[in-house]
Amino acid sequence: MKSIFFRGFFALIIAFTLVSCNKKIDRTETQKGVHEGTRNGTEGGASISGSVNDAAGIDPITQAALDQDSTARIFYAQIAAKKERGTKAEQVSSLMEFADYMMFQAQVPPRIKYRPALKAYREVLALDPSNSDAAKNKKQIEDIYAQMGIPIPQD
Q1: C-alpha distances in angstroms, 73 versus 1, 64, 98, 119, 131?
Q2: Which of 55, 61, 70, 136 is 20 to 30 A from residue 9's alpha carbon, by CA?
Q3: pTM for this one?
Q4: Residues 81-99, buried b or exposed e (16+ Cβ, 10 A)?
Q5: Can you spell out the DSSP letters for 93-139?
Q6: What is the model's pLDDT at position 155?
Q7: Measured between alpha carbons, how far is residue 64 from residues 60, 91, 113 in Å?
Q8: What is the per-residue pLDDT for 56?
Q9: How many CA within 13 A on the CB side of residue 151?
């Protein structure tokens, strides 16, 4: 009985170690991309080439956010899936999840995280003009841009 317990315990330890190593590798690759992007002069400091969904016409700042945050990539992929075969309510829901994540939880610099969130909130309001959460958060981001002294993106 003890040997089964120890085997399971060691299997969990090994799995946890492998996951931790992969996260460290992802962070290292992201940091490398940030430094390369800074040298190449790309906006936001991230390397855009070879990243998720290059052909989809994603703006460089949104792409930088997706390159730096794997959870943001998941939410963004859900948006694309819902746009293709989802109802209007499902599209609004996936856009709000992405926007809220970017605004409140994404671990990327403010100059990168707010623009994709603002765009998503605008898309929500285009689909559902009565969405008070999207309107409130859109206004909050616009106020943040004003406080930072940066023009509010209009795209």
Answers
A1: 43, 11, 9, 15, 24
A2: 70
A3: 0.65
A4: ebeeebeeeebbbbbbbbb
A5: HHHHHHHHHHHHT--S-HHHHHHHHHHHHHHHHHH-TT-HHHHHHHH
A6: 79
A7: 6, 23, 9
A8: 58
A9: 3
Q: Which tokens in the block code for residue 58?
A: 């994603």
Hey, what's the torsion of the CAs at 55, 61, 63, 65, to 10 degrees?
Answer: -170
Please name which of 126, 97, 129, 99 lies closest in space to residue 115, comparing C-alpha atoms: 99
Q: CA-to-CA distance for 47 and 131, rounded, in angstroms?
A: 35
Per-10-residue mean pLDDT, the chain, length 155: 46 40 38 35 34 61 94 95 94 97 95 94 97 97 93 89
As given in the structure block, the two tokens for residue 66 are 């997706």
Q: Which residue from 89, 114, 112, 80 is spatially nearest to 100, judged by alpha carbons? A: 114
